[in-house]
Write a structure and sequence with these properties.
The longest helix is centred in the N-terminal third of the chain and has 32 residues. The protein starts with 17 loop residues before the first helix and ends in a 19-residue tail after the last helix. Helix 1 crosses helix 6, helix 3 runs parallel beside helix 5 and helix 3 runs antiparallel to helix 17. By secondary structure, it is mostly helical.
C-alpha cells in the first residue's frame, strides 16, 4: 500500500484488454456479414424471389460498399474523430442488420445490406487505428495479431454459421441472432475506446467520391456481365464508368492538398506488396465460397447445415493455425510469411481438380484445409506488416488502404467466381473446378509478387513488432 506522502510515480498499469475485446467484437460482426448469407442464398431466393444476379448482389453489395468507402471513412474520421465515426457506424450497422432480418423482398434486403456495408466501412476504417492508440510495444504487436486473427475468421465463421441458422431457425435468424452481440459490442466500445485527436485537414471529397464510384461500377460490370452478357449495355456502361472514375481518382489525389492516399506511398515496394497480398489472399481463400455453397447444395445434394459443416473445415484449420503458430510467424521475414502463405492458398485451390474424379464434398477437403492453413498464416501477421510498411505518420492510411484492398479482393472474387460459375452452368462440376483454378492463379501470382515486393532491401521494411504509431 502506498503512503500518502510517497511522491514516487506509480508504475504504469498494464493496458486493459477491454478495448481490444470491443474492437474484435465489432470487427467480427461486420466481417461475419460479408459471408453469412452465402449458404442461405437458396432459402432466401426461394422466399424473396430474384434470379442469380439478385442473389449475387445480396452477397456482394455489402462488400462493394465496404471496399468502396473504407478509405473515405478513414479520411472523414481524421476530422470528426475515429471513436465518434466508429460508434456512429456501429449504431447504424445494428439497425441495418435488423432491417435485413425484416426484409420482405430481395430489393429491400439488397438495400439494407448496402447500408450495412456503408456502416461497416465506418467501423473498419477506424478500428485498427483505435487499437493502435491503446497499446504500445509488444502489447501492440499481440493486439494486432489477435485482431488480425478475428478479422480473418469473421468471414470464414459466417459461411459456417449461416447455413446452420438458416436450416434450424430460418434465414432471417442469420440477422436476428447477432443483435445481442451488437449490444455488447456497443456497450464495450462506448466505455473503453479512446478518442483520437482531430487533424483539422481538408477532407478529400473528390477522392472519396471517385474511388467509391470506381469500385462500385467495376463490381457492377462484372456481375452484370455474368448475368446479362459482356456486351450488354449495362456491362459496357459500368466498365466505362469504372475506368473514367479511376482516372478521375488519380487526378484528384494528385491535385488535393491532403489526399486520402499520397501518391508517394505507391513508390514504396512494401506498401504495394501489402496491397497485393491483401487482395490476392482474400480473393482466393474466400471469394469462391458462395459458388461452392451453391454447388454443394444443388449438385451434391447437401443440406444447408451439411454444407456449413463441410465448409467449417476451413474455419477450424484457420483457427488452429492462427492460435498455434502466429507468434512464431512474427519472427520470420514478412515477405516469406505472407508470400509463402498466399502461394499455399493457391496450391490448395488447385487441388479442386479432384472434384472432376469425385464430385462430392470430400473432394473439396484438401482445398479447404490448405486455404484455411494459408489464410490462418496471413491474417495474424498482415495488420502489423501493413502499418510497418510505411512511415509512422501514414500508418492509419496504410491500414485503411490494406483493408480496402482486402475487401475489394473479396468483392471481385465473389463477382468473378459467380460469373465463371453461372457461365458454365451446363456442367456445374466443371464450372466449380474452373472457379477454383482461377482462384489458384490469382493466389499464386499474388504470392510470388508479394514475396518479391516484401523482400528485404534496406531498412524500408521494418520488423512487424516495432512500436508503430498510426496517425491520430
Amino acid at each position: 500500500m502506498r503512503s500518502a506522502l510517497d511522491l514516487t510515480p506509480a508504475p504504469p498499469a498494464p493496458a486493459s484488454w477491454r478495448p481490444l475485446v470491443a474492437a474484435c467484437l465489432g470487427t467480427f460482426l461486420l466481417l461475419l456479414y460479408a459471408t453469412i448469407v452465402t449458404v442461405a442464398l437458396p432459402r432466401i431466393g426461394a422466399e424473396l424471389g430474384g434470379g442469380f444476379g439478385a442473389r449475387q448482389w445480396i452477397v456482394d453489395v455489402f462488400t462493394v460498399a465496404l471496399a468502396g468507402l473504407l478509405l473515405g471513412m478513414g479520411s472523414l474520421s481524421d476530422n470528426l474523430g475515429r471513436k465518434r465515426v466508429y460508434l456512429l457506424g456501429l449504431v447504424i450497422f445494428g439497425l441495418a442488420t435488423l432491417a435485413c432480418g425484416l426484409a420482405g423482398s430481395a430489393a429491400v434486403l439488397i438495400a439494407a445490406r448496402a447500408v450495412q456495408g456503408v456502416a461497416g466501412a465506418a467501423m473498419f476504417a477506424t478500428i485498427l487505428p483505435l487499437v493502435g492508440l491503446t497499446y504500445t510495444g509488444r502489447a501492440r504487436a499481440r493486439a494486432f495479431a489477435v485482431w488480425g486473427t478475428v478479422a480473418g475468421a469473421g468471414g470464414a465463421v459466417g459461411t459456417a454459421a449461416g447455413g446452420v441458422l438458416a436450416e434450424l431457425l430460418g434465414w432471417r435468424w442469420i440477422f436476428f441472432a447477432s443483435l445481442p452481440i451488437w449490444v455488447l459490442s456497443l456497450a464495450l466500445a462506448v466505455t473503453s475506446l479512446r478518442e483520437s485527436d482531430r487533424t483539422g485537414k481538408r477532407i478529400d471529397f473528390p477522392g472519396i467520391a471517385t474511388f467509391t464510384v470506381a469500385v462500385s461500377a467495376l463490381t457492377f460490370a462484372v456481375i452484370n456481365g455474368g448475368d446479362r452478357g459482356w456486351a450488354a449495355p449495362g456491362t459496357v456502361l459500368g466498365a466505362a464508368i469504372a475506368v473514367v472514375a479511376l482516372v478521375a481518382f488519380v487526378l484528384a489525389e494528385r491535385a488535393h492538398p491532403a489526399p486520402m492516399v499520397p501518391a508517394k506511398l505507391f513508390g514504396t515496394p512494401a506498401f504495394v506488396g501489402v496491397l497485393v497480398v491483401a487482395f490476392a489472399y482474400y480473393f482466393a481463400a474466400f471469394g469462391a465460397l458462395p459458388v461452392l455453397s451453391l454447388w454443394l447444395q444443388d449438385t451434391t445434394g447437401l443440406s444447408p447445415a451439411g454444407t456449413s459443416l463441410a465448409l467449417t473445415v476451413q474455419v477450424v484449420v484457420f483457427f488452429l493455425t492462427s492460435a498455434l503458430i502466429s507468434d512464431r510467424l512474427h519472427r520470420l521475414p514478412p515477405g516469406r510469411v505472407l508470400g509463402g502463405a498466399t502461394v499455399l492458398i493457391g496450391l490448395g485451390c488447385a487441388t479442386g481438380l479432384a472434384a472432376l474424379a469425385a464430385p462430392n464434398w470430400v473432394a473439396l477437403l484438401p482445398a479447404l484445409v490448405l486455404t484455411g492453413l494459408g489464410a490462418g498464416m496471413v491474417s495474424p501477421v498482415f495488420p502489423a506488416v501493413a502499418i510497418a510498411a510505411v512511415p509512422a505518420s501514414y500508418g492509419g492510411t496504410a491500414g485503411a488502404a490494406a483493408n480496402s484492398s482486402r475487401q475489394l479482393g473479396l468483392a471481385l472474387g465473389i463477382a468473378l467466381c459467380g460469373t465463371l460459375y453461372s457461365g458454365h452452368s451446363g456442367s456445374p462440376t466443371g464450372a466449380i473446378v474452373l472457379v477454383l483454378l482461377f482462384c489458384a492463379g490469382v493466389a499464386l501470382v499474388g504470392g510470388v509478387l508479394t514475396a518479391w515486393l516484401l523482400r528485404p532491401r534496406t531498412r524500408d521494411l521494418l520488423p512487424v513488432t516495432r512500436d508503430v504509431r498510426p496517425r491520430t
